Amino acid sequence: MKTIIAEKPSVAREIAGLVGASDKKDGYLTGNGYFVTWAFGHLIGLGMPEDYGISGFDKASLPILPNPFLLTVRKVKKDKGYTADTGAIKQLKVIEQLFNKSNSIIVATDAGREGELIFRYIYEYLKCNKPFERLWISSLTEKAIKQGFDNLKNGNEFDGLYQAAQGRSRADWLVGINATQALSIAAGNGIYSLGRVQTPTLALICKRYLDNKNFTVKKYWQIQLMHNKAQVDFKSISAIKWDEKQLADDTLKAIQRGATATVTSVEIKSVTEQPPLLFDLTGLQKEANKRLKLSAEATLNIAQSLYEKKFITYPRTGSKYIPEDMWAEIPNLVRALQNREDCKQALTKIKWGRFNKRIVNDLRVTDHHGLLITDKVPSVLNADENKIYNMIALRLLEAISQACGKEITDVSLQVLHYDFTAKGCKIQEAGWRSIKGSFTDDGEEPVQELPELHKGDELAIKEAAVLEKQTKPPVLYSEAGLLSAMETAGKEIENEEERKALKNIGIGTPATRAAIIETLFTRNYIVRDKRSLIPTEKGLQVYELVKERKIADVAMTAEWELALQKIENNEADAGTFQKEMETYAKSITDELLQTSIANTNQPKLNCPRCKNQQLIIRDKIVKCPDEACNWVQFRTVCGVQVSIENVTSLVNKGKTSLIKGMTSKAGKKFDAYIILKENAESSFEFEKNKSSKRNGK
């Protein structure tokens, strides 16, 4: 017998159907010489400090450097502690029995770092020594699975992948556990969660937020002219940006006295815009966030669902290319889209026999190729699945289309002794831009079409106006912008040599970036404000504490990603990497334990109910330490964080300032004051009728 182990029950059922294992049992299927079973994601993980006999946060125990690392069954939170997941224990027993009854194992977990880790941790925990082979596939279509079974690979070929996954897992443990405990001990005021990738990501958000907030906006003025030649209206703009409106107004008056514009130069150049490459996961998440306002995690979940339904290839890919041997499949995928209403218009723009091979590059394909549709085309999907599928399908059509050819014209003009410029664009060959019919990128203004102009032409001025403009601060990160910054962390690095060394290396991986962003939300370090990511009070506090520390260093985190890639490719030693991580964990622990936490920032407030205890102020609650009194005020009320200033005002004056943008249980937005009533119970007071409703706790 052979045991096939998949990552999820749904995938196991697909495989079981193909290998003839149709007899359903509790936790597995069997038949035709196979047992087919499954994990539920990470059944086994690294043990927590309690598993090493260390309870609570104890300075004397730091740094915690496990040797060896212990593996434990997945735990779930219960009451105040953690307990083993009963479902995981049950499934693990099933897997153990099947492994014992089998001669060999076929690993069918997702073909990537995390999938490899899920299996290997189970294999190691069960002390299994049966030989295993690897099913390595990029889609779950019947054809792909059958080809995969015809080309099973020796499990040892993926030792590098496992060592990289294990190295990442242990590094995150060493940094996360030690740094979190060290800073929390130093603070003595709640838990300050830190992480190997989480903290540099938070640093990116906070730095951008502060740069934006501290930016001084300056006004300036330009003059815009309207011309007409050969029945074509077009605009030009002054090269000068005046700091004083009066100077611009004076110039405008001079121009309006009948001046004409003289063309001083015309420069025409042809520009070729190559089509975009296929989506990798990060690219898809960025596009979905920009166009559909979907979070990175939501996009990944939708893509995973489409993959499991066999409509697209493996989504957790970091590549935008396909290997040479897949090129022959592309015409079949394009033909398959002929049955899809949403793609019919785009398919009329495709030039058969002239497909662009730019996406073919064996050297740029990592574990998996770029995101593709399969030859199984969906007929019924939910709204978001439909949009994501169309995004992937249309990107394929764009990628295999010809380049877009543009003629860009730059014109210089002179009015009196002032310089003006006009820019024009003419599409010569629509190419890939015809697929969606969009000839400029999002956020770009369409460039005007100019008439034929020559040096020395005299142009009348139909209209002239002063435009008021202002300098723009660094834009706050949206999720798409943050994903870009994580993907190209090297661009954030100031040292030029380091930046070159880390070109194309980001922080996190395509598969983990969504989870890192979601962790920052869970930790109450960041919130969404429309489409922008804004640090909370707590997020900024953590940033201020660690911004000069190694743990916030984007370059160092990017270097680790590079090291893990080398381990995966068998170019670096996993043991050396772990020793480096242990040394690093020691140094950040020492560094953070010596951090001076300015609790002076926190006001000293007396309990409004018992009047004789000083309140404990945390990021989620403000409470009286006297259990007999037990006064408490939550810091998040109807979806809005109550600031320290408002907490102080509530306790000392019995009323906050007007808090805007709260959301009722019915989902309606409202503004209100939080007030203290008798016995220090909190309630709302509304602006118009000052009536008190709902309890504000």
Automatic annotation (TrEMBL):
<keyword id="KW-0479">Metal-binding</keyword>
<dbReference type="InterPro" id="IPR013497">
    <property type="entry name" value="Topo_IA_cen"/>
</dbReference>
<feature type="domain" description="Topo IA-type catalytic">
    <location>
        <begin position="158"/>
        <end position="589"/>
    </location>
</feature>
<keyword id="KW-0413">Isomerase</keyword>
<dbReference type="Pfam" id="PF01131">
    <property type="entry name" value="Topoisom_bac"/>
</dbReference>
<dbReference type="Pfam" id="PF01751">
    <property type="entry name" value="Toprim"/>
</dbReference>
<dbReference type="GO" id="GO:0006265">
    <property type="term" value="P:DNA topological change"/>
</dbReference>
<dbReference type="InterPro" id="IPR023405">
    <property type="entry name" value="Topo_IA_core_domain"/>
</dbReference>
<comment type="similarity">
    <text>Belongs to the type IA topoisomerase family.</text>
</comment>
<dbReference type="Pfam" id="PF13342">
    <property type="entry name" value="Toprim_Crpt"/>
</dbReference>
<protein>
    <recommendedName>
        <fullName>DNA topoisomerase</fullName>
        <ecNumber>5.6.2.1</ecNumber>
    </recommendedName>
</protein>
<dbReference type="InterPro" id="IPR013825">
    <property type="entry name" value="Topo_IA_cen_sub2"/>
</dbReference>
<dbReference type="InterPro" id="IPR034144">
    <property type="entry name" value="TOPRIM_TopoIII"/>
</dbReference>
<dbReference type="InterPro" id="IPR000380">
    <property type="entry name" value="Topo_IA"/>
</dbReference>
<dbReference type="GO" id="GO:0003917">
    <property type="term" value="F:DNA topoisomerase type I (single strand cut, ATP-independent) activity"/>
</dbReference>
<dbReference type="GO" id="GO:0046872">
    <property type="term" value="F:metal ion binding"/>
</dbReference>
<dbReference type="InterPro" id="IPR005738">
    <property type="entry name" value="TopoIII"/>
</dbReference>
<keyword id="KW-0238">DNA-binding</keyword>
<dbReference type="InterPro" id="IPR013826">
    <property type="entry name" value="Topo_IA_cen_sub3"/>
</dbReference>
<dbReference type="InterPro" id="IPR025589">
    <property type="entry name" value="Toprim_C_rpt"/>
</dbReference>
<dbReference type="InterPro" id="IPR006171">
    <property type="entry name" value="TOPRIM_dom"/>
</dbReference>
<keyword id="KW-0799">Topoisomerase</keyword>
<dbReference type="GO" id="GO:0006310">
    <property type="term" value="P:DNA recombination"/>
</dbReference>
<dbReference type="GO" id="GO:0043597">
    <property type="term" value="C:cytoplasmic replication fork"/>
</dbReference>
<dbReference type="InterPro" id="IPR013824">
    <property type="entry name" value="Topo_IA_cen_sub1"/>
</dbReference>
<dbReference type="GO" id="GO:0003677">
    <property type="term" value="F:DNA binding"/>
</dbReference>
<dbReference type="InterPro" id="IPR003602">
    <property type="entry name" value="Topo_IA_DNA-bd_dom"/>
</dbReference>
<dbReference type="GO" id="GO:0006281">
    <property type="term" value="P:DNA repair"/>
</dbReference>
<dbReference type="InterPro" id="IPR003601">
    <property type="entry name" value="Topo_IA_2"/>
</dbReference>
